[in-house]
Amino acid sequence: MDNHDKKRTLxxxxxxxxxxxxxxxxxxxxxxxxxxxxxKALLYYYFPDKISLYAAxxxxxxxxxxxxxxxxxxxxxxxxxxxxxxxxxxxxFAMKYYxxxxxxxxxxxxxxxxxxxxxxxxxxxxxxxxxxxxxxxxNQCQELHVENTIYIAEIFLNAMIGMRFCVLKDKxxxxxxxxxxxxxxxxxxxxxxxxxxxxLRNQEKS
Length: 206
Known about the structure:
Layout: H1 3-22, H2 29-35, H3 40-46, H4 50-73, H5 79-96, H6 103-106, H7 114-140, H8 149-167, H9 179-205
Helix pairs in contact: 1-4, 2-3, 4-5, 4-7, 5-7, 5-9, 7-8, 8-9
């Protein structure tokens, strides 16, 4: 890692701490620069605005989450246990970094900045790939026989995302669940996973 990358990583880590503790709206670029003893000019050299830094923070957290998920999945042979593990990890990271979910920025899907849209798309693609890898492993173990694992993984992920809108108390004004709602959504997603996988197994028998 060269000096440029090291500096960028340090900025992202410092911003993560600030955003996670105070939230993005209550954190300024000046405070982040001060934490690192950097000039604002140098900070803006790496990140032209707070949104671009915020997007980098979310992307970095997503990478950490998927790395942890990948490590855990290595020792899980059962398809159902693997999917439930993924759901548990998604909830754990959502709770750990809850203050990073800023309603004013990502609360309206029609107004999400381009940088954040890119990260959201990357996360979605990565989730589909991870779920598909679970189905591929189940195929190899003859636990399942899923022909198009990417397509089936996409259907399952979309169904899990849909659970959010069933739980949100204020569906018009809110996009980001409360902590209690996150927990409720996770429980519903686990039930969905069991039903979904049983459906795949029964489909093979018919």
